[in-house]
Amino acid sequence: MQELVDRSDLILVGKLVKIINDPESGFDIGIIQVSRVIKGKDSTKEVRLQIPSRNRDVQVSTDLIYGIGQKGLWFLRLKRPGGNFSGNLYLADHPQRFQQETNVEKVLKYLTKQ
Asked: How many C-beta neighbours within 10 Å does residue 26 have?
């Protein structure tokens, strides 16, 4: 868990509220509404998340697909510059990078003990 924290640029509690389709890139942009920042800039209210598009011609078994309304603890890493969108994009590209809402308090207790 400590390695995941160390390798995350932004850790937050939030809800995926919108998905913007970007057909040219093969990825969509998810908008996470932030309710609490654990690691990162406290003033963060919204984050853009790059996710594999459900509309791609080819899906890969390792694709992590998130849906509108998903709430929980996000361990995000900054995507390096590039692509069609300006500004910061984050990735939650490993199953450990998202914890369901029901696990948030348990994980937060663990993190505060570290």
From this structure: 12
Extract the tokens encoding 51: 């996710």
Please answer whether residues 111 and 99 qualify as being in contact, where contact means their C-beta atoms are separated by less than 8 angstroms.
no
Residues with Cβ within 8 Å of residue 61, at least 6 apart in sequence: none
Domains defined along the chain, listed by start: 2-113 (2.40.50.120)
Residue 111 parent element (H or E): helix 104-113
Calculate the average pLDDT of the chain. Answer: 87
Cα–Cα nearest to 20, from 68, 70, 81: 68
pLDDT by residue (tens digit) across 20-42?
Answer: 987 777 789 999 999 999 999 99
Beta-bridge partners for 36: 13
pTM: 0.87
